[in-house]
Design a protein that fits this description.
By secondary structure, the chain is of the alpha/beta class. It is built from 14 helices and 19 strands. The protein folds into 3 domains: 162 residues, Rossmann fold (3-Layer(aba) Sandwich); 161 residues, 2-Layer Sandwich (Dihydrodipicolinate Reductase, domain 2), CATH 3.30.360.10; 85 residues, ACT domain (Alpha-Beta Plaits, 2-Layer Sandwich). Strands 7, 8, 9, 10, 11, 12, 13, 14, 15, 16, 17, 18 and 19 form a 13-stranded mixed β-sheet that branches. A 6-stranded parallel β-sheet has the order 3-2-1-4-5-6, sandwiched between helices. Strand 9 and strand 10 form a beta hairpin. The two termini are 48 Å apart.
């Protein structure tokens, strides 16, 4: 039986999962592939810690060059993470004729164009299913099975840490800081959770989904990103009273030759399938012109689901090697020379419904002041609640608007915040009621 040899860069949690999967299901993989996937070398700075898997010590090295330049290695798995040295390692491996499998969404979001161009020039493949949605096969679905569709939109719950925190806040009424500490203690959040809770990780993944769905190059810095650190349990409670759930949502829509590209806390109707995605689970919802709405759901992170996606990519490349058809499918679903560069709409141009919350003094005419300013900026009120205030405290006013221009909403809130009767900075959260 033919052997396809693999080199692994990074022997952390996901790398350990890949080794386990290839060991535990070796016979199954060989049967389905018609060849053996053999781990030939594993490189990591730490090769002494016990990972809970048995590995021949002769396979371990602290020298990444043995993987990148090894003549007997067909596919390099990059699981180091981050930008450097991952970028340099991947580019050199490509130059040496190695196919690449990676889970590194940050690397591809910022340097994907360079990496994919190098792969095309060297006629090798770069697959990255594990970079978005963990074990959810969303990238292969977009590139292959849904390839005939012109996509209208893509929405995603793409970060398990944020979804876990928001789920706990919803179910228990707990504060953000309290749940974050628990998430860190339970291993759902990093010691430095900034990339997760501020939406950066989600934006990395959205950048890849946008390129795949709309065939466009994208400047990562142009994606609007807002995290969940400012979300309060109070806003989640009020959202439910209006019939909404609160999620950190990745959003992209095609609009007359331009696209929206944004990540932020978003209220969605409780009856929508995305509202039921809880805990560390992820989901991606696509709308194509022929297929209509499609939602893919599953475990979005962790050792086993991510390892499943990595190994799926290994088998896909393995099949192409066996068939003599390597580089059959371009990394982003279309050849680099056919990629367009669509303009990204600025946030001030976004049209949405809005949730607004004010803390005001308890005196007549306050609501009239607020509604008057909203009206001057063409913002109409759809519904409102005025919960009971605590004795001696500010009066909460919670408003749901009809669709309005974001530029107008920001201008109105800036003016309202200057009123003597408004005691704290106002809160606003965007609403997506039509996710199809």
């Amino acid at each position: 039986m033919k052997e396809i040899r693999i080199g692994l860069l990074g022997f952390g949690t996901i790398g350990t999962g890949v080794v386990k999967a290839l060991q535990n299901n070796a016979e199954l993989v060989s049967q389905r592939l018609g060849a053996r996937l053999t781990l030939a070398k594993i490189a990591d700075l730490d090769i002494t810690t016990d990972r809970g898997v048995k590995v021949d010590p002769a396979l371990l090295t602290t020298n990444a060059e043995e993987v990148i330049s090894g003549d007997d290695i067909d596919i390099v798995i990059e699981l180091i993470g981050g930008y450097e040295p991952a970028r340099s390692f991947v580019l050199k491996a490509i130059e040496n004729g190695k196919h690449i499998v990676t889970a590194n969404k940050a690397l591809l979001a910022l340097h994907g164009e360079e990496i994919f161009a190098a792969a095309a020039a060297n006629r090798v493949e770069v697959l990255f299913e594990a970079s978005v949605g963990g074990g959810i096969p969303v990238i292969s679905a977009i590139k292959e099975n849904l390839g005939v569709n012109s996509f209208a939109s893509v929405f995603g719950i793409l970060n398990g840490t944020c979804n876990y925190i928001l789920t706990r806040m919803t179910d228990e009424g707990a504060d953000f800081s309290e749940v974050l500490k628990d998430a860190q203690a339970n291993g759902y959040a990093e010691a430095d959770p900034t990339f997760d809770i501020e939406g950066v990780d989600t934006a990395h993944k959205l950048a890849l989904l946008i390129s795949l769905c709309f065939g466009t190059k994208i400047d990562f810095d142009a994606i609007y990103s807002e995290g969940i650190s400012g979300v309060s349990a109070l806003d989640i409670q009020y959202a439910r009273q209006f019939g909404y759930a609160l999620k950190l949502l990745a959003i992209s829509k095609y609009d007359a030759g331009r696209i929206e590209a944004r990540v932020h806390p978003t209220m969605i109707p409780l009856q929508h399938p995305l509202a039921d995605v809880s805990g560390v689970f992820n989901a991606v919802r696509l709308v194509g012109d022929f297929v209509g709405p499609v939602m893919l759901y599953g475990r979005g992170a962790g050792m086993e689901p991510t390892a499943s996606a990595v190994c799926g990519d290994l088998m896909a490349i393995g099949r192409n090697i066996l068939a003599g058809g390597a580089s059959r499918s371009p990394a982003m679903g279309c050849p680099p020379e056919t990629m367009s560069t669509l303009e990204i709409k600025g946030m001030e141009e976004i049209v949405s419904q809005y949730y607004l919350r004010f803390a005001a003094t308890d005196q007549p005419g306050v609501l009239a002041h607020i509604s008057g300013i909203l009206g001057r900026y063409d913002i109409s009120i759809a519904s409102m609640i005025q919960p009971e205030r605590k004795a001696g405290g500010p009066v909460p006013i919670v408003i749901m608007t009809h669709e309005a221009l974001e530029k107008n909403v920001r201008s109105a809130l800036a003016e309202i915040d200057q009123l003597d009767v408004v005691l704290n900075k106002s809160c606003f959260i965007r609403i997506e009621s039509d996710l199809d």
